[in-house]
Amino acid sequence: MQPPVCILFLLISCFHLSSSTRTFDAIFNFGDSLSDTGNFLIANANAFPAPNIGNTPYGMTFFGHPTGRCSDGRLIIDFFAEAFGLPLLPPFLSRNQSFARGVNFAVTGATALDVSFFEQRGLGGMLGTNLSLNVQLGWFEQLIPSLCNTTEDCRKLFSKSLFLVGEIGGNDYLVPLTFHRLTEEQVTAYVPTVVEAINNATERLIELGAVNLVVPGNPPSGCFSGILTMLNGTSKRDFEHDTGCLKKANDLLKYHNRLLREEVVKLRRKYPHVRISYADFYKPIIRFARSPGKFGFSYPSLKACCGGGGPYNFNIQALCGLPGSSACANPSAAMNWDGWHATEASYRQIAASWLHGPYAHPPIMSLMKD
User: Fold this and answer.
1) Are 160 and 102 in contact (CB under 8 A)?
2) pTM (predicted TM-score)
3) What is the mean pLDDT of each run of 10 residues along the chain (370 residues)?
4) Are the CB atoms for 225 and 334 separated by under 8 Å?
5) Are the CB atoms for 337 and 304 separated by under 8 Å?
6) How does DSSP assign 202-225, residue by residue?
């Protein structure tokens, strides 16, 4: 059976650089589990029990072994590196690695707000890490002297680099919702504070010399089996009629995305010399959930490929990588990997839609034009 034409176009275009563009010299990435390439695993190497993402079948599709990526293979950031002819980004906490062509500061479980925000409200207990966006920015500032010697050299390097500020913010909402049982209204109240933190981080990078930036919104987490299981609705009205996704989670993240996009517009006005792309994480996954077959997914879109059973193949007691869980035979046919994250096949298509459109505004390739 031949793959749909739209899939073929995305796979080809994802790695095509036109003659009218230049490539980036480096990529600097900040975020959480959707782009972490190993920092969380390194930071928790001696933890007991060990993090489940350090076990098979994580990494099975591309790397053949776990790498600290929360997927069966590559992430969006990996496809970006390949598209720009750069090495896959090493995690900042790795040793004996060159960061000359870029580095990944993202950490699984990271929040946009500092941990103190949650601890002051009695919500700190279930956070996966204290390595927030602010900590990651501190790492970057700590690294700068090893990347360039003078202010002019740094500005020259950063003007030819790509900076990704997120995706981040999902953990700020989903941990209080799922583990602390806050209401949607309680969590919605601090969405502007989360968006402000992301905006401030973006502005901080601009002040340090960043010129080409991507600010992704949040995906529709109400379409992932972990949220569907832990926040399961009680009536038909709790679910979107065309996708089956959980409305209250998706409505919250739509609100986040709307505010974030408004802040991006303001930053463009304030810094007219800077090129900022807003990357839409929400719409492509909604389309996968609505019409999975159209995008090459034959496995049920709301069901985790890797999990421990139940209606959505998600069991908090048997997470992917732990005893009692198993992976589906063909992850490339699935949208949903482990209940919280997408598969490599999903990330490949989203990466293409951000590089060339229509789900990045403007498309990231357009940032490279001279």
Assistant:
1) no
2) 0.94
3) 40 42 89 98 89 97 98 98 97 93 98 97 91 98 96 95 98 95 96 98 97 98 97 91 97 98 98 98 98 98 97 97 98 98 98 98 88
4) no
5) yes
6) HHHHHHTT--EEEEE----GGGSH
Distance from CA of residue 274 to its chain's centroid?
Answer: 23
Which residues carry out catalysis?
Answer: 33, 338, 341
Residue 117 corresponds to which tokens in the numbers above?
A: 């925000």
CATH hierarchy code of domain 23-293+343-368: 3.40.50
Segments making up each domain of the chain, as ranges: 23-293+343-368
Task: State CA 302 to chain mean position distance.
Answer: 18
**Residue 370: predicted pLDDT:** 55
What is the C-alpha separation between 289 and 151, in angstroms, rounded?
47
- Cβ–Cβ contacts within 10 Å for residue 83, how many? 21
Phi, psi of 86 (to 5 degrees): -110, 155
Query: Which two tokens mark 315?
Result: 């069991």
pLDDT value for 233? 81
Q: Are 225 and 249 in contact (CB under 8 A)?
A: no
Which spans in 84-129 are helix H? 115-119
Please state, as a whole number, how many other Cβ atoms lie within 10 Å of the Cβ of residue 159. Answer: 14
